[in-house]
Structures are given as structure tokens and as C-alpha cells.
Design goal:
- Strands 1-2-3 form a 3-stranded antiparallel beta sheet, with no helix packed on it.
- The chain is built from 2 helices and 3 strands, in the order H-H-E-E-E.
- It has a domain of about 60 residues.
- Helix content is about 25%, strand content about 10%.
- The termini are far apart.
Length: about 100
């Protein structure tokens, strides 16, 4: 009985020294849509524009950023290296429902 208790205690002590099994590597995360848009903006935008403040304005559907000057902060359009505005694609407008046909 003492031998069984001693063997069991020794086994428990030795099992505490076992190395933990590392978790399986996680699958690479897919980039979020926001990250994909940010990557595209970085690739298209001219240098020296604050992309961290870039946003789409509702009135023209183009990207604008905040330029912090010595006196005031100004909203400026986000431009490509060629000087063109960077705009988001216009959302698809819902088609008007067709008028019901009347029997003659």
C-alpha cells in the first residue's frame, strides 16, 4: 500500500514537469475590407497626405483628409500622384419598380 502511494505520488510529481503541448498554428487572417481599402489608398495616394484622417464625403463620394496647418485645419481632397481625386465607386441605385401592366 505504501509502495503504491509512493509510486502514485512520484508519477504525479513527474507529470508536472512535462512540457506543455504548443497550440496548433492559427490560419493566417484575411485582411478586413477596411484594411484592403486602406492598402489601396496608400498605393494610389500622392505622398505628404494624412491618410489616417481620410474619409469619404457623402456629397461627392470622394476621399478627403484633414491638413493641419500652422493656423487652421483644412479639409483637402485626397489626390493621386497624377493630381486626380480619389473617389469611391458610386453605390448602385435601386431600380424603380416597373408599372403594372393593365389589361385592355
Amino acid at each position: 500500500m505504501k509502495f503504491t502511494a509512493a509510486a502514485l505520488a512520484g508519477l504525479l510529481l513527474l507529470s508536472a514537469c512535462a512540457a506543455p503541448v504548443p497550440p496548433a498554428p492559427a490560419a493566417p487572417a484575411l485582411p478586413s475590407p477596411e484594411q484592403q481599402i486602406q492598402d489601396q489608398l496608400v498605393a494610389m495616394a500622392a505622398p505628404n497626405q494624412n491618410l489616417a484622417t481620410a474619409r469619404v464625403r457623402d456629397d461627392d463620394n470622394c476621399f478627403w483628409f484633414s491638413y493641419v496647418g500652422p493656423v487652421e485645419t483644412t479639409e483637402l481632397p485626397l489626390l493621386t500622384r497624377q493630381g486626380r481625386h480619389i473617389c469611391a465607386p458610386k453605390p448602385a441605385e435601386a431600380e424603380a419598380p416597373a408599372e403594372p401592366e393593365t389589361a385592355a
